[in-house]
């Protein structure tokens, strides 16, 4: 049989050449965009035009990165890794040894430690902590007819649109404020089963209010549930209410006014979630400025479904104190330097990023390894645990198995999560957790 390696090598060389050409165009466009002056009548239309062209080039680059190449020439492969870490990790090359499905005895001990380790979680959506059984309980309570097979089908989603369908169905199933008793019970069980001592939980109220629920009753109910949980010795739960890109700036402002009027102790801030491509961060500048002026904390989902400029705008224009996801930030080295310099925490959601699939296709490709190694603040979270069928313990295990994080590094990222929280007692919380972790490590010999 003739040797086919030359043709494969030529194919890889062509990919390299095209990626380099795209990178050159991207660099030129970014330099030009950076020269557009702020505050001029033509500034925003020009910036939007640049963003559109940059996004098209990034999509082209991603399509090249998704090519499957078998047994490439090693010299060309080394060249590929010299292009950039993000590119080299996303082209699927059959060169990595498969991870064994069955853990070794040592791994079993490490995984048991990771489960028992007291943790914090600061990027978690309440609506996505509702299990299928809890959803069925709510439907029965509110006398809404349903078929178990239909719920099974909803939770067995296969794409982003089916995920959105499930998420909206869950929200629409919350008919009264006291439904949150069941929702919070589910949340607390999840947190306690993963040894989470402190959590900051997102809630998106826009559709609930549109469905007729009273915002003040929602806020009061959730506030009481969090206070009761803490007094009973359970996890300390705080809320970040989503002002949402999806429904526009006016709705975001209305949500902020509702939060300010409610003045619930356990509602500590706002988050910008929703469809990232529908609402550029810069449009919500005034909403975030008012929130900060009123003493609320401010975070933003960014770089999950849009390019690195989305992250930059969230940091520089919204003054976001943390960035949710931030997976596209790896495409802009100067942005990584900015995040490192300002010590802006990144809320890493590994499994969620793989499911949405815009910038990450498999665990080993996630930029969290590079972020951490370069000194960025990285926090570990699940985003949507019941919907993605993942736990916080699972996320730590995946980081250990697929991205080479040591136990000490995982403990350090847990520390960064505690310290990146908005708790007034974060230093005390970490001191307590650290003492328990040290004792666990000694007892479990990990």
Q: What is the topological layout?
A:
Elements: H1 5-34, H2 43-65, E1 68-69, H3 74-83, H4 85-90, E2 92-93, H5 105-116, E3 119-125, H6 132-141, H7 148-155, H8 160-172, H9 179-193, E4 196-203, H10 206-210, H11 215-231, E5 236-242, H12 248-262, E6 267-272, H13 285-293, E7 297-302, H14 308-316, E8 322-325, H15 333-342, E9 346-348, H16 350-356, H17 368-373, E10 378-380, H18 385-388, H19 392-402, H20 407-420, H21 426-444
Helix pairs in contact: 1-2, 1-3, 9-11, 11-12, 20-21
Description:
The protein has 446 residues and is α/β, with parallel strands linked by helices. The protein folds into two domains: 5-93; 105-444, TIM Barrel. It has helices at residues 5-34, 43-65, 74-83, 85-90, 105-116, 132-141, 148-155, 160-172, 179-193, 206-210, 215-231, 248-262, 285-293, 308-316, 333-342, 350-356, 368-373, 385-388, 392-402, 407-420, 426-444; strands at 68-69, 92-93, 119-125, 196-203, 236-242, 267-272, 297-302, 322-325, 346-348, 378-380. Helix 1 runs antiparallel to helix 2 (43-65), helix 1 (5-34) packs parallel to helix 3 and helix 9 (179-193) runs parallel beside helix 11. The model is unreliable at 1-10 and 80-100 (pLDDT under 50).
């Amino acid at each position: 049989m003739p040797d086919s390696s030359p043709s494969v090598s030529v194919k890889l060389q062509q990919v390299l050449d095209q990626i380099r050409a795209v990178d050159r165009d991207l660099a030129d466009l970014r330099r030009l965009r950076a020269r557009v002056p702020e505050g001029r009548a033509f500034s925003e239309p020009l910036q939007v035009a640049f963003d559109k062209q940059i996004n098209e080039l990034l999509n082209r680059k991603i399509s090249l990165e998704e090519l499957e190449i078998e047994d490439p020439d090693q010299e060309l492969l080394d060249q590929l890794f010299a292009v950039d870490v993000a590119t080299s990790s996303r082209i699927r090359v059959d060169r990595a040894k498969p991870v064994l499905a069955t853990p070794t005895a040592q791994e079993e001990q490490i995984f048991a430690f990771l489960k028992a380790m007291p943790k914090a979680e600061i990027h978690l959506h309440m609506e996505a902590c509702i299990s299928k059984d809890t959803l069925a309980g709510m439907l029965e309570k509110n006398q809404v007819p349903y078929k178990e097979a239909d719920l099974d089908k909803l939770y067995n989603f296969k794409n982003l649109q089916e995920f959105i369908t499930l998420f909206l169905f869950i929200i629409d199933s919350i008919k009264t404020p006291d439904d949150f008793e069941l929702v919070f019970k589910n949340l607390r069980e999840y947190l306690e089963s993963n040894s989470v001592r402190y959590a900051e939980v997102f809630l998106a109220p826009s559709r609930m209010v549109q469905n007729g629920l009273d915002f003040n009753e929602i806020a009061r109910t959730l506030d009481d549930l969090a206070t009761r949980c803490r007094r009973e010795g359970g996890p300390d739960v705080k809320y970040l209410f989503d002002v949402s890109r999806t429904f526009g700036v006016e709705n975001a402002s209305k949500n902020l006014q509702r939060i300010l009027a409610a003045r619930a102790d356990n509602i500590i801030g706002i988050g910008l979630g929703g469809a990232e491509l529908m609402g550029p961060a810069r449009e919500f500048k005034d909403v975030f400025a008012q929130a900060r002026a009123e003493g609320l904390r401010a975070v933003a989902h960014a770089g999950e479904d849009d390019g690195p400029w989305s992250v930059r705008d969230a940091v520089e224009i919204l003054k976001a104190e943390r960035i949710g996801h931030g997976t596209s930030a790896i495409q802009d080295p100067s942005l990584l330097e900015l995040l490192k310099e300002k010590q802006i925490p990144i809320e890493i959601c590994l499994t969620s990023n793989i499911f949405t699939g815009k910038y990450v296709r498999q665990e080993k490709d996630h930029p969290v390894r590079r972020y951490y190694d370069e000194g960025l603040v990285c926090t570990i979270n699940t985003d949507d645990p019941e919907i993605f069928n993942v736990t916080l313990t699972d996320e730590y295990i995946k980081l250990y198995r697929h991205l080479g994080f040591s136990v000490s590094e995982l403990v350090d990222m847990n520390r960064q999560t505690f310290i990146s929280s908005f708790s007034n007692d974060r230093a005390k919380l970490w001191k307590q957790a650290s003492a328990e972790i040290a004792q666990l490590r000694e007892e479990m010999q990990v």
